[in-house]
UniProtKB/TrEMBL annotation:
<protein>
    <submittedName>
        <fullName>3 alpha-hydroxysteroid dehydrogenase/carbonyl reductase</fullName>
    </submittedName>
</protein>
<dbReference type="Pfam" id="PF13561">
    <property type="entry name" value="adh_short_C2"/>
</dbReference>
<comment type="similarity">
    <text>Belongs to the short-chain dehydrogenases/reductases (SDR) family.</text>
</comment>
<dbReference type="InterPro" id="IPR036291">
    <property type="entry name" value="NAD(P)-bd_dom_sf"/>
</dbReference>
<keyword id="KW-0560">Oxidoreductase</keyword>
<dbReference type="GO" id="GO:0016491">
    <property type="term" value="F:oxidoreductase activity"/>
</dbReference>
<dbReference type="Pfam" id="PF00106">
    <property type="entry name" value="adh_short"/>
</dbReference>
<dbReference type="InterPro" id="IPR002347">
    <property type="entry name" value="SDR_fam"/>
</dbReference>
Amino acid sequence: MPTTAVTGSASGIGAAVCAQLEKAGHTIIGIDRKTDDNFTSIAADLSTAEGRQNAIDLVYQQSNGVLDGLVCCAGLGVTAPNCGLIVEVNYFGVTSLVTGLYDALRQGEQASVVVIGSVAANQQVAAPHPMALAMLDSDEALATKLANEDQQAHIAYAASKFAVTSWSRQTAVKWGGNGIRVNVVAPGAVETPLHQASKDDARYGEAVRNFVAPIGRNSEAEEIASVVTFLQSNQASFIHGSVLFVDGGMDAMMRANSF
Ligand code: NAD
């Protein structure tokens, strides 16, 4: 029975991933700001170095140092309390956990890591932004400072998702030889509390509500979780370093010639 840790397990995509992986026979270790009664779970704040280390230590304890899967769903959207937090959770909360759990994943059976990115990673502002470069340089203080000075939550979000996607692909190249697959799932608009908050937001709500995928609707969290569950199975044994858009055609609509 594979053991898989899932961050952001208490809500939205993470909760749907836990339910589907459990059904597929995985033992789940959930990680979120609060514990969950449904499965083994860890309360940790992934926005801080101490919280991340606490999560890593407890996953080692609860998995006996052997992890077959890690799915990083925890994240904040444009309604986060401040822009620095978006960077801290969406980038450093992911990269620290993936790196910190490397030894446990190495002990796992055909281990697989999935990071939840976003279609927003491909926005023009994201890639060259100094915030993204500071993240990829592992400079948390600078990236957070730039995000808080800028106060443009959509840019902090896009930059954090660009950086975490790029980092995941670089990590896939490094880790492939050690038998650990690493992939990114990039959703479009998914009906979760995060997305509802964005739709209700005074600053971003109208743009979010008007950005509709070619398929004509938003997705349910279960439609993202089913792709994650596939990636965590042996049926996906040669998918490595990929970004899978699960977005109803949003990426195709924005950049049909980039693939
Ligand atoms: P959600 O708000 O329903 O769930 C996010 C979870 O992350 C929550 O349970 C929350 O408690 C947890 N979390 C946030 N900050 C944390 C912290 N500091 N420490 C520990 N846990 C923390 O949101 P969701 O829509 O399910 O989002 C999941 C992921 O999907 C995020 O990375 C988000 O960026 C990404 N995403 C969502 C959408 C969408 O439309 N919903 C689109 C693209 C990408």
